[in-house]
Design brief:
93 residues; mainly alpha; 1 helix; 89% helix
Length: 93
């Protein structure tokens, strides 16, 4: 259904252009909101992944600190034993 340009009055032409402009604006707005929603959704997923990563890092840091404290305790105990062994060896000489 084609309308010849000469059959169109100036008021109808303005209305047609206005309608097309409105449709274009609505389409652009829908696309913009869709893209914005997807960006927000991706940021939310990335934020949650980052929180999980930070939680895992904190857990590993705590485990490492515990292991370091145990090693420090063991080393201190070994130094004490070594000192007592040296004392015994000196007394034997």
């Amino acid at each position: 259904m084609y309308i010849a340009a000469e059959n169109l009055g100036s008021g109808e032409a303005i209305a047609a252009v206005g309608f097309m402009t409105a449709v274009t604006v609505v389409i652009v707005a829908v696309l913009w909101f869709t893209v914005d929603y997807r960006k927000t959704k991706l940021r939310t997923v990335q934020t949650e992944d980052l929180r999980q990563l930070v939680g895992r890092f904190e857990q590993l840091a705590e485990n490492t600190l515990d292991a370091q404290q145990r090693v420090a305790t063991d080393v201190s105990e070994l130094r004490t034993r070594t000192a007592s062994i040296e004392k015994i060896l000196r007394s034997v000489d």
